[in-house]
Amino acid sequence: PLVKGYSTEMSLEVTSLGVQVHGGMGFIEETGAAQYYRDAKILTIYEGTTAIQANDLVGRKTARDGGQTAKAIAAQVEKTEAELAASGSADAQAVHKRLKAAREAFLDVVDFVAGQTKASPNAVFAGSVPYLMLAGNLVAGWQLARSLLVAQALAAKGEDAAFMNAKVTTARFYADHILAKAPGLRDSIVEGAQSVTGLALEAF
Question: Rounded to 5 degrees, what are φ and ψ at 22?
Answer without folding.
Answer: -85, -10
